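Quick one - inputs below.
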Amino acid sequence: GQQLNQSPQSMFIQEGEDVSMNCTSSSIFNTWLWYKQDPGEGPVLLIALYKAGELTSNGRLTAQFGITRKDSFLNISASIPSDVGIYFCAGPTNNAGNMLTFGGGTRLMVKP
Amino acid sequence: EADIYQTPRYLVIGTGKKITLECSQTMGHDKMYWYQQDPGMELHLIHYSYGVNSTEKGDLSSESTVSRIRTEHFPLTLESARPSHTSQYLCASRGQGHNSPLHFGNGTRLTVT
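Output:
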């Protein structure tokens, strides 16, 4: 099946630093989704991307849908302690878009 | 904010017990899903449903079963729990439309001793 590869697997940064993570696939995706999961909680949707080249922001978060449609990037500016969590990219597994496949996640740790 | 609820949040049981994990959503969503996630790892789809009386197995083989008798309710059952079933189980739903997002519950963390 389709696989999504996220990097880095984990990051340990200082509060205030900017963060960048990415997600790549061997096949084309028509939608890219970015989720954040806090410890002990379910994932929450951060940003959805539907068009190649699209750049979308949500507060301090910015995500881009790669031109090749095989990758996506998520940037967090001026990180704060509550940014801690696991960030997952996801994309539809089938053409109908009824099922999602998830990447392995990027674990972000922020040092105050 | 998504209205999807899972109970219990935490469950510790002995081997061989039958358990049912509950999932309910109040959004009228047709599509519901169960994912299994080991701590800090990726999510694996184990079951999904496109509506009442519709259930399908996901990408990851699972010994659990599901039912969908009502739109809002999608319980998952393990007939005889084993230590290998220890994991977090996440329920999700989404509405109509190709681009409608997936809403997750807070999960049930299951430990089988």
